[in-house]
Structures are given as structure tokens and as C-alpha cells.
Design a protein that fits this description.
The chain has 383 residues and is α/β, with parallel strands linked by helices. The protein has a single domain, classed as Metal-dependent hydrolases (TIM Barrel), CATH 3.20.20. Helices cover 36% and strands 14% of the residues. The protein is built from 15 helices and twelve strands. Strands 7-8-9-10-11-12 form a six-stranded parallel beta sheet. It has a three-stranded parallel beta sheet with strand order 1-5-6. It has a three-stranded antiparallel beta sheet with strand order 2-3-4. The longest helix is centred in the middle third of the chain and has 19 residues. It starts with 10 loop residues before the first strand and ends in a 10-residue tail after the last helix. The N terminus is likely disordered.
């Protein structure tokens, strides 16, 4: 039911993150993988790291914000905010910021499970994916029913195995699948693959009603124009990943052949989308000989039917919401990363959407997310 209030009292975040508990895989993988399980070690006095397949990767900086809004960077589990890795502690932080429900991307595995889908031992990779999915469904989400939207990983290297994992987890309550924003960069076929490598996955996700969520950087990294550019420039331009991903989807034939498949562009912002749609439509009209049999409609047609843009803080994008279509926009918080305005994400959101009608405010804040993910929040408050 849509709200008629002029003040949105809470919102759903369709892009937050959890930091996997340090013993997750060591405690749950089959014994034959005991020596290869991802594990956490202290590599510097103030830095823990994940050790997996010979790689040492320091903990992703949580860049958490304290209740007073000041930001700190903590990279050990001892110092980290418990809400990063504990689902009950997370509820306190969600309630403090009026977040009624959240969808969480993983951290150690990469946002789309990159480390497991590209590791040499595919049996180990599949086992790690299943351990994560069972943890997410049976422990993280089960700790607070109605507060967490369950999103699972799939083995990208084998569509048959991926279909089995989608079906297995959907039966346990999964409501979304994390998918690579650019599988070609990870060594897999592209979205334009003439042999339709991805069809079984797209068909199964469509039938199960599970959106594919493509997080910026979920294809093994952020596109860097030059290695000598500073980190700030690289980070500020990370939405280029999302632009290229959306352009691939809208100019492939996948959304034509799977018209009920839903695509979410996570943490890419929305202000650039109207220009991209305008440009793609213009090129489509300019070159009538291009692929009209495979893509018979304007690219923007597929966006408004199948794609959802997600934003954290994007005043320019919200001013263009009529061009985008208010039904295609959802809110994010990005807890606990540095981009997140937590614990002020709700007031930040309300300030951006206050010019919209109460009905449209509700859609952006939570109504669209409820519809897209088929999820009904249980309400604020600890269990």
C-alpha cells in the first residue's frame, strides 16, 4: 500500500554491504577444503587481510561513519563496527537511520563472487559460493526476517551449475542474484555472445522473479583511464563501469528475448542515465541498418521496461526523475562504505526527493524496491 503522508518515515536501501565473519568458510567448508578455505590473518599492526588461493588482500576499508557523522577507517575485525559483520548489531544501525530493510552485497568474494568464479579449483569455488549463500539465507537474513533482502551469488563459469544454485536458493527465499557488470572482463562470454552463453541464467532468473543486481566494480575492478591518475579521480569516475554495463544490456538482444528479466544498476548513480538513453536512441535512429532484427525497439524502451537505476546522493538525477521514470528509481545507503551518508542517509534522501509528490516519494524510498524484489519489510525495531 502506498503512503499518502507528506513525510517519508523510513526507506529501503538496495545497496549495502556486509563484511563476512572471519571464520565463515573455515567453519563451514567440507573438510577436504580445510587448508584452502579463505581465512583472516593480521598482516600489519592495524590491518587484517583475507588469505585465499595464494592472494593476500587487506580488508576492504569500511570507512565507517560514527553516530556524529565523522568518518573513520578501521581495517581490523577488533576495531570494526559490529554492524559490518553481525546482523543483529546491524539492525541498531539501520534503525538509527530509518532503514526499514536492506539488500547487502558481499565483500571478501567481490561484489559478484569474482574470486570464487575465477579461482582455479572450481569445486572449491562452488563450495565457497554455496557456503556464502547458506550463511546469508540461514543466518544473516534469518536473524531478522523482513529486514534483509536476500541476494545470492552464482558460479559464473557454468550456466548449468548457476541455474541449479538459483533454483536451490530461490527455494530457500532468495530474492535477487548478484551478477557481473561486465563478465567479459573476467574471462567469460560477453552479453553479446552469439551462442547465448547466459541464456539459462537469464531464463531461470526471469522465471523465479529474481532481479540481477550489477554493482559498480563487480567485474574485477574499477576502470582506470591511466595508472598515474590519483585514487580520488579513479574513485570519482567509477560510475563509468555502470555506463558501459547499461549500454551493453540495452544494445544486446537479452532484454528483448527475456522481457520479464529485471536489471538493477547498483551504486552507479542515475544522473547520467537520461543522456545515455538519449544518445543510444539517437544512434539507433541514425544507423537503421544496425541490428534491428535482434533489437527491434529503441534502447530506452528496454530501460523503462526492465532496468532500475539506484542512487545514494544524486540531486541532479532526482531532478531528472520524470525523464527517467519514477518507477525505475530506487534508493541506496551503501553502509558501511565511505560513500555512505549513514547515519544521515534518510534525511539526505528526504531532502533530495521532497519536491516529488507523496506517492512518488514513497516509490523512490521503498515502494519500487518492494515491487522489484517482491519483498515486504517487517518494520523498524529490533527483534
Amino acid at each position: 500500500m502506498e503512503s499518502t503522508s507528506t513525510a517519508i518515515s523510513d526507506h529501503i536501501s538496495v545497496d549495502d554491504h556486509l563484511v563476512e565473519p572471519p571464520e565463515l568458510w573455515r567453519e563451514r567448508l567440507p573438510a577436504r577444503f580445510a587448508d584452502e578455505a579463505p581465512r583472516v590473518e593480521r598482516v600489519e599492526p592495524n590491518h587484517d587481510a583475507w588469505i585465499f588461493q595464494g592472494n593476500v588482500e587487506k580488508l576492504f576499508p569500511t570507512a565507517q561513519r560514527r553516530a556524529d557523522g565523522a568518518m573513520t577507517v578501521e581495517n581490523t575485525f577488533a576495531d570494526m563496527r559490529p554492524g559490518c559483520y553481525d546482523p543483529i548489531a546491524r539492525l541498531e544501525d539501520m534503525d538509527a537511520d530509518h532503514i526499514v530493510a536492506a539488500l547487502n552485497f558481499p565483500t571478501m568474494s567481490g561484489f559478484a563472487g569474482t574470486k570464487f568464479s575465477t579461482c582455479a579449483d572450481k569445486d572449491l569455488g562452488l563450495a565457497c559460493i554455496q557456503v556464502y549463500n547458506d550463511f546469508l539465507l540461514d543466518e544473516w537474513c534469518a536473524a531478522a526476517p523482513g529486514r534483509y533482502i536476500p541476494m545470492v551469488l552464482i558460479p559464473l563459469w557454468d550456466p548449468r551449475l548457476a541455474v541449479q544454485e538459483i533454483e536451490r536458493t530461490a527455494a530457500k527465499g532468495a530474492r535477487a542474484v548478484s551478477f557481473s557488470e561486465d563478465p567479459y572482463r573476467q574471462g567469460f562470454p560477453s552479453l553479446h555472445d552469439p551462442d547465448h552463453f547466459w541464456d539459462p541464467i537469464f531464463d531461470t532468473a526471469q522465471e523465479a522473479g529474481l532481479p540481477l543486481c550489477m554493482h559498480m566494480g563487480g567485474s574485477s575492478g574499477i576502470i582506470a583511464h591511466r595508472e598515474d591518475r590519483p585514487w580520488f579521480t579513479k574513485h570519482a569516475m567509477c560510475y563509468v563501469n555502470s555506463q558501459l554495463s547499461l549500454a551493453d544490456w540495452l544494445t544486446s538482444d537479452n532484454l528483448e528475448r527475456f522481457p520479464r528479466l529485471k536489471i538493477c544498476i547498483s551504486e552507479g548513480g542515475i544522473g547520467w542515465i537520461p543522456h545515455l538513453l538519449e544518445h543510444l536512441d539517437g544512434m539507433y535512429r541514425l544507423y537503421p541498418e544496425w541490428g534491428r532484427d535482434a533489437v527491434p525497439e529503441l534502447p530506452s524502451t528496454y530501460f523503462r521496461r526492465s532496468v532500475y537505476g539506484c542512487f545514494i546522493d544524486d540531486a541532479a538525477g532526482i531532478r531528472l526523475v520524470d525523464t527517467l521514470g519514477v518507477d525505475q528509481v530506487m534508493a541506496e545507503t551503501d553502509y558501511p562504505h565511505g560513500d555512505s551518508p549513514w547515519p544521515h542517509s534518510h534525511e539526505t534522501l528526504v531532502a533530495q526527493i521532497q519536491h516529488l509528490s507523496p506517492e512518488d516519494q514513497y516509490k523512490v524510498a521503498r515502494g519500487n524496491a518492494e515491487r522489484v524484489f517482491g519483498f515486504e519489510p517487517s518494520g523498524l525495531g529490533l527483534l
